Amino acid sequence: MSWESFVMMMPYITVVILMAIGLYTVLFKKNLIKIIMGIAIMQNGANLFLVSLAYRRGYIAPIFTSAESTDMVMPTPHALTLTSIVIGLATTALMLSLTMMIKKHYDSINTEDMRRCKE
Amino acid sequence: MTWDTLVTNSPTFILGIPLLFAFLTALSGRFSKKIGDTLFFIALIATAFFVSLMSYEVLTGESWFYVFGAEQPSPENIRSFFRITFAADGFAVLATITIMITAVAAGIYSYGFMKFETGLNKFYTLFLLTLAGVNGMVLTGDLFNLFVWFEVTSVASCALVAFKNYRGESVEAALKYMILSTVGGLVILFSIGLLYGQHGVLNYALLREGITGSFIDKLALGLVMVILAMKASSVPMHMWAPDAYGEAPGSVTPFIAITSLGSLFVLFRLLFSVFSLTVVSGSILIILGTLSMIIGVSMALVQSDLKRLIAYLSVSQVGYMMMAVGVGLATLNTGDYDSFGELAMQGGLFHMINDGVYKALLFLSAVAVVHVTDIRSLNDLGGLAHKMPYVTFFFLLGALSIAGIPPLSGFSSKLLIYKSVYLYSPILAIVALVVSIITLAIIGKAFFNAFLGPDQGLVKRRVSKTMLLGMGILTVALVLFTLFPNIVVTEVVTPAIDALTETFEGVIP
Amino acid sequence: MKWEMSRVVKTVTDILVAPIIIFGIYLILHGHLTPGGGFQGGAVIASSTALLIIAYGTLGKHKKDLSSIEAVGLTLFILIAFLGIGSTVFYNYITGTGFPFGGSLPYHGPNPGYINTGGTITFMNLMVGIEVAAALSLILWMMSKRGGVMEPKGSSSKKAEGKD
Fold it and tell me: B356: which residues sit within 8 A by CB, 6+ positions away?
């Protein structure tokens, strides 16, 4: 693999690393806050993946204001990324507030203590 | 505004009206409770009206692709548009009808059931948002929207599960469901990225042309399939379902179940209309379905909590649909499709609409039992038939239907499944039959425990009239499906199958 | 316990709130021309609320107002979308007319970025901006310790009438 193609692959390698870290955190950590942080890391991985998909060498960002050339990238992945960021805000806020309520009811944010449903 | 405008725009009204009224009910919290109630019912009735309008047009006329923001609702050449599309076809009709029956019943039931709660306008907002989300999931014609509505459904239904936030169990169930759904949504987003990077389009109909079965396609298919099966509470990923169904506010339990049925609809749409890897994905569906049936029913055996018992039974019912449609998918484009594949599809999809109805009836009557007695354990219940004749009748109807006892609609669809699956593989049909018998034993035990026997004086409250009305609507639908199964199959289910197997033919010029 | 921050924090907050809000409005109004738009502008405006919460520890009695503003923004968004029902929902019926923000542009190619364009998109950005600013402020306020989520134990048990 040449240096050039390695540089081109860098975003995707980062995506894989981020997704792996996030998944590991979600699966193996017991602390709810850490799990939510893991989900946020996965979210960033997915967003980075979409943004790097949209990149084309030599093309410019899809902003028409005083643009120099008309070789622009398709803005669909950017729109998808924005949507996912907005949704990520909503889900993170909801999960955090649920965690706050868990803390209030169970006096703990450890998943080991969340066993009341099974009874 | 003419009638035709209303008809061609009906897919957007199915989404727009719940959304609009969701925000209006949120606003009405400042004024009075009455306004919120009224707006909620107006929204439900108007959405049901537009669902029937769309259904009538699709079933008697033709289906259409609705393109947002274009000058005409369905322009001649959708290829030139990078726009949001909705597919108003037979499959969407089947799905929205299934969703709306339960939504109307659960909504009316909620009015009587949630009377003692505060902040009801927020409950209505969440209910309508979930309704819009599920309808959007089944109506949408591109992956972008699928992701958006998937997340709307997740967030709104998780908040619904946690609505009684003074109970720790509700919050715990909601958090489990939420973490799974969020990770699931991210995985779906990732696979959408894979497909977009490979093919450059997100529209189902255009994506269909590009899919060849390369490694990337298979990876994306696998990821999407796992997540949607998870949301549909299929077995290896079913753990969230009994918690969420058991701990949600009683009146919305069937509605949470409907969101998982909606995910199953989406899964079928994607497998048939987008991915053309029929044999592989069909076999996976059959395996998942068989596992769901067996494990769901064997977990239900050991439950003593009424709501969790029905939740596990519903997991096993999902197995029937996955198995039947899986047989249809595995035989698609082969000679076997005409001999029994189509029959399996009919059985599977008819079972979905049946399941939506009788599962809701079972859940609502079980919730009524819990509501009047404050007891959830089957060991402590007994003799309720003396004081609650209507609820007993409703529960009995649902129980007989879920077990597939002959005259009822559950039997019609299960018979189609047995007949067709037997020709594919006799073992699967035998498994389905055995699971059905065990289901009968389980639900029979629950019925005897809860309703029969001497009166123990457990009844503390009355079942309000609106709760009975909600269950009555479901009963009417159940009786209609029981009396006219052939009409439902030929008029509603067959167009849905055609929409699935023809995969947008004629939409793209 | 009264929330008290030092005079420095309060003064800096007082100075910064207005520019932050103006920058948010700028982002919202240029949403159809440059990166930005309703969500981003709204988030920027909400960050000024975050500053206020940190410095003064309260938003006063405006919790219900924020919730209503959010609902109004969303309702208007849906209504604006549905006004295009003559063609389709989300149809841009303003562009090309004399209405504010209704200027037209060449279909292709770069342009100098006239703000008087965009049609319904501009109005929708405005509504989304209002919604997001209100909703994010509400979330921040509810999550800050004085917002009411973390009530002391037992205070919320009065709701537990209908058990399930």
Answer: B98, B99, B101, B102, B258, B261
